[in-house]
């Protein structure tokens, strides 16, 4: 645990009375207009970008907003704070050793998910109208699922990542977390990923498919929700889940070690134990293994492209479980939280994380669209939100 004097110059963690450790810094911005919170690895002018870690001593506040933040401000949004996250984005729980573990608004004894945990929790708790997060292998989608909100991982490269701290630069995207699909559509329009600020709901007969043989190991809460829609989804063979997980992890760990290797070498004590272990693992990946993973990812991307060529979307759960408890081991939770999200970070496809009706804690479903097909994906999301989500509960 880090002492208060070691924390970023922007200010100490602030809970706004909720006890959920949502914020790493708050602003004094006032005035009309919708509110926005920003993940701590995205620049907000005047605030140190800590990335959920302990920044290098003397690191100055950001001089300018990240591209996405600037666009949201131009549209009238007010930034009310920077949100807590899994350190450097390298984890799926937001159990942060420096700023506190982000609790889930539905049950503060459980995790919010990660790595954009504070962003999803702020929207779920009604603290902010919208949030910006980043997604490398599931970091928008996992917390959106566990907190019961809507998250969008756009097509890789669709929204500029300028002004965000890279984790794995060939996987990273910036995207919105919103209370519903309509708000996500508005945000995507502001971020220039959609041509219109509102869309018509998809109509007609849908062909929705699921990856054959992928969905297993679900806990009771996710299994019950999944069972209500699984029968309407046609199975399609895209190969085994393991085909995708290996190259995805190789890419993630190698690029993470490259981007954060200096802190690992010079200030290892400033890193949380779980993140330090993964960065150390990344430093040991041979260049040949990384290159092989990049060759394989093109093959895997083409498999998903073919599956979507004659389908409206590929559908599967976001996680294998509802929100685990705060005291669970973050490394031990990876096989429950990340296997279903990681493949589409690798292939670069856009994904809508949509809450589905469930008993008890929230359950999220991933709706995967064609690369560059955000407009069709969000039209479909409006319909599925009505048919599967809270709007019809």
Using brief descriptors, characterize the structure shown.
393 residues; alpha/beta; Amidase signature (AS) enzymes; eleven-stranded mixed sheet; 15 strands; globular; disordered N terminus
Structural description of this entry:
- The chain is an alpha/beta fold and 393 residues long.
- It has one domain (4-392): Alpha-Beta Complex (Amidase signature (AS) enzymes), CATH 3.90.1300.
- 33% of the residues lie in helices and 17% in strands.
- It contains eleven helices and 15 strands.
- The strands form three sheets. Strands 1-3-2-8-10-9-14-15-13-11-12 form an eleven-stranded mixed β-sheet, with helices on both faces. A two-stranded antiparallel sheet has the order 4-5. A two-stranded antiparallel ribbon has the order 6-7.
- A hairpin with a 6-residue loop joins β14 and β15.
- The protein starts with 22 loop residues before the first strand and ends in a 5-residue tail after the last helix.
Q: Topology, please?
A:
Elements: E1 23-26, E2 35-39, H1 67-74, E3 78-83, E4 95-96, E5 100-101, E6 103-104, E7 107-111, H2 117-124, E8 130-135, H3 141-147, E9 150-153, E10 173-178, H4 181-190, E11 208-211, H5 220-230, E12 234-236, H6 241-266, H7 273-283, H8 287-308, E13 313-317, H9 334-337, H10 342-347, E14 351-356, E15 363-368, H11 374-388
Parallel strand pairs: 2-3, 2-8, 11-12, 11-13
Antiparallel strand pairs: 1-3, 4-5, 6-7, 8-10, 9-10, 9-14, 13-15, 14-15
């Amino acid at each position: 645990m880090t002492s208060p004097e070691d924390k970023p110059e922007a200010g100490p963690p602030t809970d706004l009375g909720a006890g959920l450790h949502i914020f790493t810094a708050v602003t004094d911005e006032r005035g009309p207009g919708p509110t926005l919170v920003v993940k701590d690895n995205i620049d907000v002018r005047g605030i140190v970008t800590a990335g959920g870690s302990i920044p290098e001593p003397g690191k100055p506040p950001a001089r300018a907003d990240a591209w996405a933040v600037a666009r949201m401000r131009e549209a009238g949004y007010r930034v009310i704070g920077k949100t807590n996250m899994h350190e450097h984005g390298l984890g799926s729980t937001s159990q942060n050793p420096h700023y506190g573990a982000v609790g889930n608004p539905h049950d503060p004894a459980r995790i919010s998910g990660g790595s954009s945990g504070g962003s999803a929790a702020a929207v779920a708790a009604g603290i902010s109208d919208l949030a910006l997060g980043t997604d490398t292998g599931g970091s928008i989608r996992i917390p959106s699922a566990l907190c019961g909100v809507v998250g969008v991982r756009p097509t890789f490269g669709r929204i500029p990542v300028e002004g965000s701290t890279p984790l794995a630069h060939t996987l990273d995207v910036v995207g919105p977390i919103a209370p519903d699909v309509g708000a996500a559509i508005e945000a995507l329009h502001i971020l220039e990923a959609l041509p219109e600020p509102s869309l018509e709901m998809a109509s007609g007969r849908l062909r929705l498919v699921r990856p054959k043989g992928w969905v297993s190991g679900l806990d009771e809460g996710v299994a019950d929700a999944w069972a209500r829609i699984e029968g309407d989804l046609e199975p399609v063979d895209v190969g085994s889940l393991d085909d995708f997980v290996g190259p995805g992890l190789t890419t993630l760990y190698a690029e993470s070690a490259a981007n954060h290797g200096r802190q690992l070498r010079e200030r290892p004590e400033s890193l949380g134990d779980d993140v330090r272990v993964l960065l150390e693992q990344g430093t040991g990946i041979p260049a040949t293994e990384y290159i092989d993973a990049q060759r394989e990812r093109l093959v895997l991307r083409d498999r998903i492209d073919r599956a979507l060529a004659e389908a409206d979307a590929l559908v599967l759960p976001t996680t294998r479980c509802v929100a685990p408890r705060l005291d669970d081991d973050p490394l031990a939770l990876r096989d429950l939280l990340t296997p279903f999200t990681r493949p589409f970070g690798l292939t670069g496809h856009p994904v809508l994380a949509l809450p589905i009706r469930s008993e008890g804690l929230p359950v999220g479903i991933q709706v995967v669209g064609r690369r560059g097909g955000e407009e069709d994906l969000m039209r479909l999301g409006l319909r599925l939100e009505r048919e599967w989500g809270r709007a019809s509960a």
